[in-house]
Amino acid sequence: MRARRNLALGILVLATSALAARVQDPLPSWNDGAAKKAIVDFVKATTTAGSPLFVPPQERVATFDQDGTLWVEQPIYSQFVYCFDRVPDVVKARPELANVEPFKTVMAQGRAAIAQLSHEDLVKIAMTTLSGMPVDDFRAEVLRWLASARDGRWKRPYTDLTYLPMQEVLQYLRANGYKTYIVTGGGQDFVRAYAEKTYGIPPEQIVGTAIGTAYSYGKDGTPVLTKEPKLILDDNYAGKVEGIDLMIGRRPYAAFGNSTGDQQMLEYTKGGSGARLAMLVLHDDATREYAYGPAQGLPDSKVGTFTQQLYDEAKKAGWVVISMKSDWKRIFAFE
Amino acid sequence: MRARRNLALGILVLATSALAARVQDPLPSWNDGAAKKAIVDFVKATTTAGSPLFVPPQERVATFDQDGTLWVEQPIYSQFVYCFDRVPDVVKARPELANVEPFKTVMAQGRAAIAQLSHEDLVKIAMTTLSGMPVDDFRAEVLRWLASARDGRWKRPYTDLTYLPMQEVLQYLRANGYKTYIVTGGGQDFVRAYAEKTYGIPPEQIVGTAIGTAYSYGKDGTPVLTKEPKLILDDNYAGKVEGIDLMIGRRPYAAFGNSTGDQQMLEYTKGGSGARLAMLVLHDDATREYAYGPAQGLPDSKVGTFTQQLYDEAKKAGWVVISMKSDWKRIFAFE
Fold it and tell me: What is the sign of the dihedral through the CA atoms of A224, A230, A236 and A242?
């Protein structure tokens, strides 16, 4: 009788401590190491009452780049795939584009044309395919596309390809009173279409490359807001800091990126007083994801340029580099 | 003994019901009437679980014009007074402006010059006095000015001149899960400097006329963000709808304004499905505040144009006009 009671008690103790360990670790997909420790230390220092580095709740802002920081960006940003997939519809509506470059090439080769187009061509395709429709229609259209589009490697919806360790960081920061923002070079409206469901981040906390809108009236007199091919904010490099000031109006306490396009956002974040956290994801895991850089001798790539110079600045300035290979126990939720 | 107990009980009952009445009325500075009823009915319809017009908490967005809607805008927007007061400092830093109009006139006449300047002159003064400094310095400077500046009529800080009934609406909506935003034709950075303390509205919920910033490095290498005389968003008329889409990315469920500059915001708000509330403050109280319009035969004015056409559209479209004179029991907290 006593033995049985002791056994039951033992099982209970074991179960409870396993549960406690799980409850106590807010970042279970992270291996122990400098990166994980930096995040936990930062949160404790800025949110523990009485800490000399305590940050009032209303000032707790954390910003995240998206492509390559929160989800896969290889072989090309998924938004560009969306734009390419939309070209036939746009050409159908505006037949005069069929014989104009770069649309002609895209009509002939589809997604395969991506590799050979210049940055200017890509911008032209983005501007044309992302404008001309009411904003509500655009968001519905992006959701339709996301529901059926699959990436080439994992054959999964793009929204499955978010990094589980980063989702844990988002949740951990929010659980500690931080407002989490995406600050992306990608299209603001594109990301807003799915970010609430995918990351738990509402539209008003998405800062991205933004084009203008035009206000007019439909046939029945109801107001219509139409996307216009006019750039309002180029949310890359210094543009990320300008976007943060324009849309948030507060300097972040934590910022996460993975490329030279995030450098100014991290500098600006670390430039504030008190505890500030700046982190860079290094894609050094060719097996489980991709390895590109070219920091630390990784191959160069069309997207997410992480130069050796950026790596050196990070080390010098006290930014923390996250090695995907060694810091992340698990990369995707579906694994 | 029993009589004493009954008396005590009677007092308790009276005190409790007085307290209950106070607790139950979220808008004590409003007189009973169509305007107050419209606000309370809207909140109940959109926030009561099971209501056919229920709005999920994350979609509860309410937008407020500032000048003339949340605080006094006569005889001129206080931001213009700020700009005029800054002209001597700007001319000291840039002596070449001393002999250039409109700066020459302002140097000679001070605030008195406001009445005779054109809209273009005012914009020129605003652009020049609101740019050229780091964003942090600008906000500190606005707070310094607000601490000492007094309006001409009540001899009080401008931030004392907010309308108590509207402060109650802000609090009532927030208590019911609404995110309250200011969407102002005034300068976004100017309003951000004081809005958190004055209205309980944080910087990231202020949408206003915005100028660009430039990112650079100070002598010690730290990043500096400087305000540039380059217009990013003209947050008036249709610009308010564009600003809402750019910064919030959701259509408001409730919108409050007081002039033709708010017309499109109210149209856009009412254009959504479900319960939508659109309200306009009519300044018809010459005794307690000001009476100007020219709706309903009120005198025309340099600011806050409320035309008869807007009044008629409001009545036709189901927008609710708030009569300051009859709907507001009390206008200022200091009264």
Answer: negative
